[in-house]
Amino acid sequence: MQAAVRRTRLRPLQSLLSSRTILHHHPPQNNTPAFADCGARGVAIETAVGVRISQQKNDEFAIIKEKTRQLLERPKKHRDPFIKNLFLKKIDPTILEYPEVRQDEMDELMNQVEPIANRVKEVDPEKIDKNGAITENVLTGVRNSGGFVHRIPRTHRGNDLNMVGYTAVVEALSLEGNMSLGALAYTMGSWSARTLEKHGTEEQKAFYLPMIATGEAAFSLCVSEEKTGSNVAAMQTSVRLGEDNRGYLIKGKKSWVINAPNTDYFIVIAKHQGLGEDVKYSDPERQFHQDKRKTGSMSAFIVPKKAPGVTVGQLKPFIGLRGLQVSELILDDVPIPLDYLIGKTGDGFGIAMEAVSMERHVMGAVLLPLLKKLIDQAAKYVSDRHVFNRPLSDFHMIRVR
What we know:
Radius of gyration: 33 Å
Number of strands: 10
Number of helices: 13
Distance between the termini: 101 Å
Order of helices and strands: HHHHHHHHHEEEEHEEEEHHEEH
Structural class: alpha+beta
Helix content: 40-55%
């Protein structure tokens, strides 16, 4: 009976020990109660477990020390000065953020880009810039060739291209100097769509993203204002709850809104009324918290163009980008439902900064075809133009360039 009780008492503690731990069983003395003997042995076993855990920690610490020593003793890779190399036109490819694309992925990408490029080559960029608008048949052709789907997830009828692939698509859309077309596709298919995809609710994504992919609806992002420029924290556009607390009212003016006359929905960043007013503090720490309060008082909203109080203002044509139809957007107490909020209340500043900066480098792809075209024309000119019975290409300054 005593042996059975002892085995029952020790079994849970024995399971904590490894196979190397040896349990020494000694039969209890006739005068010692069985339970007292089990208690003493339990304390001994728990002590052994504690010693083993301590030993494990020491072993792990020794491993960490050894790995740290190996890292410190590893020979450092020699790198040439970064800024110096920029002046020497040398770039270390290991610092590039985006990896090289495999050849099979590149072949698949080119199959997607080719129909877009063929369609764009038929478009006259001078006509677009002269008329100040992209015609509907051009937009239909780009839409049918998949110009707006590439940054939208496949679950919402998109293509879900990575940034390397999408940069190639934007470059194809901008061929022959069609900067307005490339920038418009970037604005509709990536700038606004990625904001909804990353911060919108599941209902918002399911409703809006398929419409952007098929070109049924156009979106524009409204952040900048004429008096504040790039200082987003100082924006004046305000939002407040309606009288019945069932919706929002947005009031203000946004500047440089791309494709505003043809947009169906605007993503508007607005500051909650009564929050984030300028208050001067002498204490830098309190000033820091005040700045955080200012940036945390903004939210992002979906504003339909058909909502009462929405007015598209005067066009502000940009040189080479007149087809974008950049305009002002006037919001006069525009009522919108509560579920038109994107993300959480106070997320507006982060959404705006992310949208503006996360894919800004893609705009370089818009300019790339134009730069190639300028280089080709310059090369042709210096070859055909003759001065002093010599082509310009033979002069020293031209050759070194």
